Known about the structure:
By secondary structure, the chain is an all-alpha fold. 86% of the residues lie in helices and 0% in strands. It is built from 3 helices and no strands. It has helices at 4-31, 35-38, 43-80. Helix 1 runs antiparallel to helix 3 (43-80).
Amino acid sequence: MRDLAEVLVGNKRKIEELERKAAEKAGMRFLFFDEAKLFGKQRDKYIADYIERLIKDLWPEILEAAKLGKETYGEIEKRAA
Length: 81
C-alpha cells in the first residue's frame, strides 16, 4: 500500500498538470473567438455553442481530475477507518 502522503502529492501533481492542459485548451479555443458573431444577431446561439465546444474540449481533463479526487478520497477513507 502506498503512503498517504505519496498518494496526495502524486494526485495533486497530476491534477495540476490536467489543469494546465485544460487552461491551454481553453486559451487556444479563445484564439478562435469570432467577435463579429459574438456581437451579432445570433450571439446567444454563438455563445451557447462556444461553451458547449469548450466543455467537450475540456471533458477528458475534467473526468480524469474527478477520478483522481475520488481515488484520493478513497485513500483517506481507508486510513481513517
